[in-house]
Amino acid sequence: MLESIRRTTAYIQSRINGFEPEVGIILGTGLGALVNEIEIEKQLMYSNIPDFPISTLEFHSGKLIFGTLAGKKVVAMQGRLHYYEGYSIQQITFPVRIMKMLGIKTLLVSNASGALNPAYKKGDLMIIEDHINLQPDNPLRGNNDEELGPRFPDMSQPYRHDLIEKALEIAGKNSITCHQGIYVSVTGPNLETRAEYRYLRIIGGDAVGMSTVPEVIVANHMNLPVFAVSVLTDEGFPDELKPVSVEEIIAVAREAEPKMTLILKELIAQL
């Protein structure tokens, strides 16, 4: 893996003319419009980057965006990768390792997820304070390279408390409904059954999605501070469960996106 990381990093560096990003951003389903706020200096298609996996979803663009946002140099993934697309768990977390090697000091992650907590509503935001990993694999499984991180990384604070507090202050100041809760990561791509939603709530979940946790594990492995936020696009309440389509989920994500963008921009300005 280290050879691939070095090869990919060298290729990207040869294309971005000395640009050194401070902040990495992973944009979730229906949440790619944040790039419109970036003063773009360079864009690279995933398909042109050696060893870089390609997003297979029609609503994920598949670009690395380099530029300035809120006064900070950033690199944004417009289009994330998912385990259900058929990639290995190491492949979908590969971009996090590349962003770290490019120089980022903080990773910001967004996703679209389903609400499990009945106090939450569709269209609300939830800052992730902790997670439950129900993915079938771990990105750290296999031989460990000490250059990347320790064999047994600590996960007592996978999401930085200081960043959570700053984001909650920003939300409150701007009258944005923003919860703080536990995210459960599952494989997908199907949405959950009534019984599964009930189970996920019983084990402590406030929201459920199909991403984020593998990337956060790798970020912690590389000693990279993480902030993550979910846009709650549907409601997984067993006694009131209604069918939902991906199109509806994306529509809700896009409607709520300006609130998330405001929080991320102000948070980046304070880094």
Q: How would you summarize this macromolecular structure in one to three sentences?
A:
It contains six helices and nine strands; from the N terminus they run αββββαββαβαβαβα.
List the helices and strands and how they pair.
Elements: H1 2-15, E1 23-27, E2 39-45, E3 63-69, E4 72-78, H2 89-102, E5 106-115, E6 125-133, H3 161-173, E7 178-185, H4 194-202, E8 207-209, H5 213-221, E9 226-235, H6 246-270
Parallel strand pairs: 1-4, 1-5, 5-9, 6-7, 7-8
Antiparallel strand pairs: 2-3, 3-4, 5-8, 6-9
Helix pairs in contact: 1-2, 2-5, 3-6
EC number: 2.4.2.1
Organism: Mucilaginibacter arboris
Family: Belongs to the PNP/MTAP phosphorylase family.
Relevant terms:
271 residues, alpha/beta, Rossmann fold, 31% helix, 24% strand, glycosyltransferase
Shape: globular
Number of helices: 6
The end-to-end span amounts to 30 Å
- Outline the low-pLDDT stretches: none
Task: Characterise the protein shown here.
It is an enzyme of class 2 (transferase). This is Purine nucleoside phosphorylase. Keywords: Glycosyltransferase, Phosphoprotein, Transferase. Pathway: Purine metabolism; purine nucleoside salvage. The chain is an alpha/beta fold. It has one domain: Rossmann fold, CATH 3.40.50. It is built from 6 helices and 9 strands. A 5-stranded mixed β-barrel has the order 5-8-7-6-9. Helix 4 (194-202) links the parallel strand 7 (178-185) and strand 8 (207-209).
